[in-house]
Write a structure and sequence with these properties.
By secondary structure, the chain is α/β, with parallel strands linked by helices. Helix content is 46%, strand content 11%. The chain contains 22 helices and 11 strands. Strands 5-2-1-6-7 form a 5-stranded parallel beta sheet, sandwiched between helices. 48% of the residues are buried.
């Protein structure tokens, strides 16, 4: 039976005049846009973050920065956007307060495997001044233990053999820039959650190009801008409910709609090469050193998010707000942030870290986002090494215990071993980097064997040894989880 929502007309340039009158609309001539930005990774986060800042700039009159979006893995978002003339909506919601706008910043969208030549041509075009990237940590083909290029990555192996038909993020960037005139300045702007993300991208591209073309490696080393950046906004994956919410606000069906929190932040190191959008005019922070902001966000927001995800999955709490509303799990999460993670921070100068933490906790409590713990739990092998392990190593080097963060690590290992919740529900598990670790955890005869098996996975935990006192505490935590369950460990 067709629902009222599904019977609505779709959002498009033709239906735009029928959008509910209280919705903010693109107040500029979209036909006059110049595509000055290519973006790799056309997911919900980009559409609710970088594209939204750029939308503000376009609305202020600078039409040079239309965005050509590129999806590397999934054609569905490209198909949805193409059917809507590349228009979509963003709804910012907290509690009962919601504000929706239609975004027109996209001037096109491509699915790279089917339109590779067009993607490479766009990157090579001197009119393109910025290539921005949101492909998640795993999209950079980096070995998390060594921080170097992962030459065992199937995409990298393919691209080194067929560099003109690339599949990987690095391969596509290299192939496009190899076609690009050497006199045309370019900035590659990484917007993923990695410390020193621009520096990481440069290192990996230099290593990749070093296997193919010494001249291209030199370009990556010195000619192309790759500023570090930090991005922050909670943007859950779309659900039927969020799409219905957008349809109710618009009076039109929008299959690319994004619902997110009101908070938004972007900090960029001022190390561009050539022309760039004046994002600082629309709320972006430009700085000489983004590292304190990155570390703060990686540990306090992303690190806490990971703890929320694994504890929430084990305790049958499907969303972040469900976790925060649970007395024991929510209490553990708050203490983890305010005690262990906050104490590991060197915050930016004149920055109110206490207020930042309280703001984060309020954001996590927002019940309208339905941010799924299942989604945040994906690909932990790429996240845990940057979100938790540096803080743990730093505290251990000082002879300090991080009792809450150590419990969170034990919970992650227990989640990997069991992949079932406390009530026996089979959990969705997706982490290609954890297959060997999971196998070893399940072969372990005792809790101590399990801990040793985990720490021996150098691709995740690194080759540097871990103190025996830490091993002992982690073993006790695993014992508690196995004998009494997650809630018992969290309340200990």
């Amino acid at each position: 039976m067709e629902t009222e929502s599904s019977a609505l007309r779709s959002l498009s340039r033709h239906s735009l005049p029928t959008v509910n009158p209280d919705i903010t609309m693109p107040g500029y001539d979209r036909s006059a846009l110049v595509c000055g930005i290519v973006h790799l990774g056309l997911g919900a986060f980009h559409r609710a973050h970088q594209a939204l800042y750029t939308e503000r700039l376009l609305a202020a009159g600078d039409r040079r920065w239309g965005i050509l979006g590129v999806s590397l893995r999934d054609p569905s978002v490209v198909n949805s956007l193409a059917a809507q003339d590349y228009l979509y909506s963003v709804t910012e919601k907290h509690g009962n307060v919601a504000q929706t706008q239609v975004v027109g910043a996209l001037c096109g969208a491509l699915f790279a495997p089917k339109a590779l030549n067009q993607v490479l041509t766009a990157i090579a075009n001197p009119q393109t001044s910025v290539v921005s990237i949101t492909v998640t940590e795993k999209g950079y083909s980096q070995n998390p233990a060594t921080s170097d290029l992962d030459l065992s990555d199937p995409g990298i192996q393919h691209d080194l053999q067929y560099p003109d038909a690339p599949m990987s993020t690095l391969g596509i960037l290299a192939a496009g820039i190899r076609r690009r005139p050497t006199h045309a300045p370019l900035t590659l702007l990484c917007c993923d959650n990695m410390a020193g993300n621009g520096d990481v991208l440069r290192k990996l591209l230099v290593q990749y190009a070093g296997h193919l073309d010494a001249g291209l490696a030199r370009r990556f080393e010195s000619d192309i801008g790759m500023p570090n950046s930090m991005v922050d906004r909670i943007v859950p994956a779309a659900t039927p409910g969020s799409l219905d919410m957008a349809a109710a606000a618009l009076g039109l069906r929008d299959e690319a709609a994004v619902v997110c929190e009101p908070f938004i932040q972007w900090v960029i190191e001022n190390r561009f090469s050539g022309p760039r959008p004046n994002w600082e005019d629309v709320g972006v922070t430009l700085t000489s050193d983004v590292r304190p902001y990155q570390e703060m966000k990686l540990r306090l927001l992303n690190g806490t998010h990971s703890a929320i995800a694994y504890a929430g999955q084990l305790c049958d709490l499907p969303t972040v707000s469900d976790v925060m509303a649970d007395r024991q799990v929510g209490g553990f999460v708050r203490r983890l942030m305010l005690e262990d993670l906050r104490s590991s921070m060197n915050c930016p100068p004149n920055f109110d870290l206490n207020s930042y933490c309280q703001d984060l906790l309020r954001r996590f409590e927002n019940p309208t986002l339905a941010h799924k713990t299942e989604q945040i739990a994906l690909d932990g092998s790429q996240k845990i090494p940057v979100r938790w392990l540096p803080a743990l190593r730093e505290s251990l080097a000082l002879g300090k215990e991080s009792p809450l963060l150590e419990r969170a690590l034990a919970i992650w290992l227990f989640y990997l071993e069991r992949q079932t919740s406390e009530t026996g529900k089979i959990l969705m598990f997706k982490d290609a980097g954890c297959q060997e670790l999971v196998t070893q955890l399940r072969l372990a005869a005792s809790s101590r064997d399990l801990v040793h098996a985990a720490l021996a996975q150098y691709s995740i935990f690194g080759k540097a040894g871990w103190p025996e006192v830490f091993v002992n505490r982690l073993t006790e935590h695993i014992n508690t989880l196995r004998s009494a369950g997650t809630y018992a460990l969290l309340s200990a």
